[in-house]
Automatic annotation (TrEMBL):
Keywords carried by this UniProt record: Hydrolase, Magnesium
SUPFAM superfamilies reported for this sequence: HAD-like
Source species, domain of life: Bacteria
Alphabetized PANTHER family for the sequence: 5-AMINO-6-(5-PHOSPHO-D-RIBITYLAMINO)URACIL PHOSPHATASE YIGB, N-ACYLNEURAMINATE-9-PHOSPHATASE
Gene Ontology molecular function: hydrolase activity
Entry protein name: HAD family hydrolase
């Protein structure tokens, strides 16, 4: 593939999301939620609650909590308990503190699971690093939990100290990162699965973005995207397509400079 170091901005600065971009995340929450649905249906058997209505209420409570306090580890177990309380009042059924303790332990157990990389994660990072691009990690969540995942995957070998962990992952947070570092926005990318927390903040900040679509996307991440002609956005279905998209943009810019 054609490359030329005689053109400026050939080497890119690439911000990667972590959860459901580099490593699996939603599928583990899905496993815990399946257990939760079964437990609630067992406890409320006489009321014949459906998985759909339990799921819809849990999602509603979970997303409202994230909007209010950000990506805190307590949000998820609290959403299970508050969903339980909602149906206890609706049905009605007495609230049992021991049952709430069980749900708290169930919700927190998701953070103890071993993380698993998406296919070709290592090969993709190796390719980009060997091409001279500078890699950054930008993830939402609590520092201790996210750092544990980073350590398990040995991601420091690709990102070094260039790691940003934020409880609120939005346009303001990304703008602060871009302003605090030596980022050239014309050659900076945000790579992630979330339209809400990755793509829209990137386009708003005037940097390029690659949206990695996943099949089991969390409802919080699904929002309407309004594009303008100056937005640089690629959509792919796997992380291994990222280097090709970046190469494509570099080649297009090089050709344009040649014509000018």
């Amino acid at each position: 593939m054609f490359r030329s170091d005689s053109y400026v901005n050939t080497r890119q600065q690439i911000l990667f999301d972590l959860d459901d971009t580099l490593i699996h995340c939603n599928k583990y929450f899905g496993l815990i939620l399946d257990e939760f649905y079964a437990i609630i249906q067992q406890w409320f058997a006489e009321y014949e609650l459906t998985t759909t209505e339990i799921r819809q209420k849990q999602i509603e409570i979970d997303i409202a909590s994230v909007h209010n306090v950000g990506f805190k580890s307590g949000n998820f177990p609290a959403s299970l308990i508050n969903t339980y309380r909602y149906f206890s009042q609706k049905c009605p059924r007495l609230i049992n503190p021991q049952e709430e303790d069980q749900l708290m332990k169930l919700g927190l157990s998701v953070y103890d699971l071993e993380v698993e990389p998406y296919p070709r994660m290592i090969e993709t990072l190796e390719s980009l690093k060997s091409d001279g691009h500078k890699l950054y990690l930008y993830t939402g969540g609590e520092t201790a939990i996210q750092q544990r995942k980073i350590d398990q995957m040995k991601l420091n070998m690709y990102f070094d100290e260039r790691i940003y962990i934020r409880e609120h992952k939005n346009t303001h947070a990304l703008e602060q990162i871009l302003q605090s570092g030596l980022f050239d926005r014309s050659s900076t990318w945000m790579i992630g699965n979330s339209l809400r927390t990755d793509v829209i903040p990137a386009l708003t900040a005037g940097i390029a973005s690659i949206h990695i679509q996943i099949s089991n996307e969390w409802e919080y991440n699904i929002v309407e995207l309004e594009r303008s002609p100056d937005h640089i956005l690629y959509t792919v279905s796997s992380i291994e397509e990222v280097p090709e998209m970046i190469d494509h943009k570099i080649e297009q810019e090089n050709k344009q400079r040649t014509l000018n």
